[in-house]
Design a protein that fits this description.
The complex is a heterodimer of chains A (253) and B (325).
Chain A: E1 5-14, E2 17-27, E3 32-36, H1 43-50, E4 58-63, E5 66-67, H2 73-79, E6 81-83, H3 95-100, H4 108-121, H5 137-150, E7 155-159, H6 167-182, E8 186-190, H7 194-200, E9 203-208, E10 211-216, H8 218-221, H9 224-231, E11 233-240, E12 243-250
Helix pairs in contact in A: 4-5
Chain B: H1 2-20, H2 28-36, H3 41-75, H4 87-100, H5 109-131, H6 135-159, H7 163-173, H8 182-208, H9 213-217, H10 223-245, H11 251-260, H12 267-291, H13 300-324
The chains are: A alpha/beta (253), B mainly alpha (325).
Chain lengths: 253, 325
């Protein structure tokens, strides 16, 4: 099976500052891969470089088995879709029209239907006609997530899809991403909530200062040692009946 | 669709009024005479003076309205307008040079200079748009270009030995569609049509930019090409209208706002109605300029700015509200 995303030995520099150094990551169809790490670790830069939005100093990126640099705009859009962290929407367009932008190359009627389907799945179907600037930040975030899901790309890249959502909606949003993975998409997302990451991700990549601090299955990767080294936390993932939970406090030095 | 029909009906009415009313009041018999014998004195007034003038106002208004809608969509900024990228300042400077060098009296030379100046400025901005995708960068370059164009125009005043030049340039800069003949429209149409075509081509890209540069970059649309098409299209439209009528502000700023709410804020669907709304605004402004009884006929740019400035303030007020959201 061809990986939806392969990143090999990626390095990114901004001026003289090293933002990412020798980072490798892959995502297979059906997988949810979490990119974790403290603020400024290079998570967003990694996603942007994976999609060709950030110049690479070194390393290879392949989408669907094809070198990123060989892909045209259309081909790349057919292989990957992106939900940026930036949630600013310029105009007060109705929610369904924003969501339908994810399927801009399809027939308008189909794009409309796909948009309504995803808004319904994210439980904001009743807001389909409302202007996105007349919504709360969390509602708008769901509309933008719907836009990502409407694309039906084989690789879905989401930067902080859970940010700004209430706890129940965080679960809902990640459930939807998981469902798309179960349907054969590869999902790469960044998360700050390690409890959510441990529950939804098949694999995680932990970054610290632009370098890989750990990678693998969440339960085996998010060890007390890594929590301490990468996040400055004193704690552990605890198994509970509903799933793993992070129990931790700030490390006292 | 309904919006377009309403706007077209209003435009038709405004054009009709514009041909019927003017400085010279005609009797009913004279109107009848004009339609029966287009060659009569009344016919001359209606079809050789008023009609081309009204159509010219409509064309310039449509070009500015469309160009403003494209600029607002491209820069994702409700306060953007055709002049924001320095295109009209380039046209103004070239026209000032033409007047100062004394070639302004040669038929078509002034217009050609204004068009060339606008397009030169437009080419610079288009090259920048191809290289940088952030709207802030484009705006900053545009502000710099506009300031340079303004300073160079002032330099022409400064160095010109004759106060007549200054008066002529100033009067031209204030904009007018007076004394336009059908032939003037003939040469302005091709650049306007080409500009409108480029804008139509860029429309889907403008819609996608609603979500920001990065989402648009991954939408599958050839955004680099669409961005250049939008800038080039807006520059052609602005340049042709500056050449035809001088620098006219506020129409390009206000027209998109008048129609945006009726098309669900969609930047792509704003374009056509915005063009028609711009045409209506300028035809009415020109009608006002003619019928308001003043010693010297009001300049078109003065009328649009007088009515436009309050609109600008209102837009800023409303935009501030949406930025808080």
């Amino acid at each position: 099976m061809t990986a939806a995303l392969e990143i090999e030995a990626l390095s990114v520099r901004l001026g003289r500052r090293i933002v990412l150094e020798d980072v490798s990551l892959s995502a297979e169809p059906g997988e949810v891969v979490g990119v974790l790490g403290p603020n400024g670790a290079g998570k967003t830069t990694l996603l942007r470089a994976a999609l060709g939005l950030q110049r690479r100093a070194a390393g290879q990126v392949r989408l669907g088995g094809r070198a990123l640099d060989d892909l045209g705009d259309r081909e790349r859009a057919g292989l990957a879709a992106y939900l940026p962290q930036e949630r600013r929407v310029a105009w007060n367009m109705p929610a369904w029209r924003i969501a339908a932008l994810g399927a801009a190359e399809r027939a308008p009627a189909l794009a409309h239907a796909l948009a309504l389907e995803q808004l319904d799945a994210l439980e904001i179907g009743d807001l389909a006609e409302r202007g996105v600037l007349d919504m709360s930040g969390g509602e708008r975030a769901r509309v933008l997530l719907a836009r990502l899901l409407v694309s039906r790309a084989p690789l879905l890249v989401a930067d902080e899809p859970a940010a700004g959502l209430d706890p129940e909606t965080q679960f809902l949003a990640l459930e939807r991403l998981r469902a798309h993975a179960d349907d054969g998409a590869a999902v790469v997302l960044t998360l700050h909530d390690l409890t959510l990451a441990a529950r939804v991700c098949d694999r995680v990549l932990v970054l610290r200062d632009g370098c890989v601090a750990g990678a693998g299955r969440p339960a085996e990767t998010l060890t007390p040692e890594l929590l301490s080294a990468a996040f400055g936390l004193d704690g552990a993932l605890i198994d509970t009946p509903t799933g793993p939970v992070l129990a931790a406090a700030r490390k006292r030095s | 669709m309904r919006l377009a029909l309403i706007l077209i009906a209003v435009l038709a009415a405004a054009l009709a009024l514009s041909v019927v009313f003017g400085e010279t009041s005609l009797s009913l018999a004279q109107y009848a005479d004009a339609f029966a014998h287009p060659g009569s004195a009344a016919g001359e007034i209606l079809f050789r003076i008023r009609a081309p003038r009204a159509v010219c106002a409509a064309l310039v208004g449509a070009a500015l309205g469309l160009s403003g809608a494209v600029m607002q969509g491209l820069l994702r900024n409700p306060l953007a307008e055709p002049g924001v990228l320095g295109v009209s300042a380039g046209g103004g400077f070239a026209a000032a040079c033409a007047i100062a060098l004394g070639v302004g009296a040669v038929s078509g030379a002034l217009e050609l200079a204004a068009l060339a100046g606008s397009l030169a400025a437009g080419a610079i901005v288009a090259a920048i748009a191809a290289r940088f995708r952030e709207p802030e960068t484009l705006i900053l370059f545009g502000v710099a270009l506009a300031a340079l164009g303004g300073a160079l125009t002032a330099l022409v005043f400064n160095l010109s030995p004759s106060p007549v030049t200054t008066a002529e340039v100033l009067s031209w800069l204030q904009g007018s569609v007076a004394n336009r003949a059908w032939i003037d429209l003939g040469w302005a149409l091709p650049p306007m049509a080409l500009g409108a075509g480029l804008c139509a081509y860029a429309a889907t890209g403008l819609r996608m930019l609603t979500l920001g540069e990065e989402s648009a970059a991954l939408s599958g649309l050839p955004m680099a090409r669409l961005r250049v098409a939008a800038v080039a299209g807006a520059a052609l439209l602005t340049g042709a209208s500056v050449a035809l009528a001088g620098v006219i502000g506020f129409v390009g700023l206000a027209a998109p706002h008048l129609v945006r709410g009726s098309v669900s804020d969609d930047p792509a669907r704003t374009l056509a109605p915005s063009a028609i709304a711009g045409a209506i605004l300028l035809v009415i402004a020109d009608l006002l300029a003619r019928v308001i009884p003043t010693e010297e006929e009001l300049r078109l740019g003065v009328v649009t700015a007088l009515f436009g400035a309050p609109v600008f303030a209102l837009i800023a007020w409303r935009a501030a509200r949406s930025w808080r959201a």
